[in-house]
Amino acid sequence: MPNLHRGGVEAESGAITRCLVLTLGGLAELEAAFGADDLTALAERFGSGRLKARDLVCIIGAGLRGAGEAINDDEVSRLSAEGGAAGFVRIASELLAATFGVDERPLVKAASG
User: What domain count does the chain have?
Assistant: First the structure.
């Protein structure tokens, strides 16, 4: 069960409920993946509302690994989420909001077609 006070969130993938949390190691992983100089730069990048599918894989993967799952990004890229792409955006948004302690506004905006 996720601990919201520690930045944990819950997400469903198929019939499996998973916990995600961005640990300090996960944040360092994301800084490296996104070429961010520090946490402020990382938060600003996420707050821009413009993330690629590959970015979502990195964020969700780091969150799953932070919660103790032995999963690599290739395996993450094959997961499914309720609502498809919008579901992945929701998961990443909730995880980032829990991690950075922001209000309920989505940090990542779903792409409109």
Answer: 1
* Distance, CA of 101 to CA of 25 (rounded, Å): 18
Question: Residue 110: inside a domain, yes or no?
Answer: no
CA torsion sign for 58, 59, 61, 66 is: positive
pLDDT, tens digit, for every residue of 48-84? 878 899 999 999 999 999 999 999 999 999 998 888 8
SS3 content of the chain, % helix, strand, coil (to 5): 50, 10, 40
Residue 113 lies in a domain: no
- Convert the pLDDT of each residue in 91-106 to its tens digit: 999 999 888 876 544 4
Print the domain residue range for 26: 4-100
Provide the 8-state DSSP code for 49: S
On whether residue 63 sits in a domain, the answer given is yes
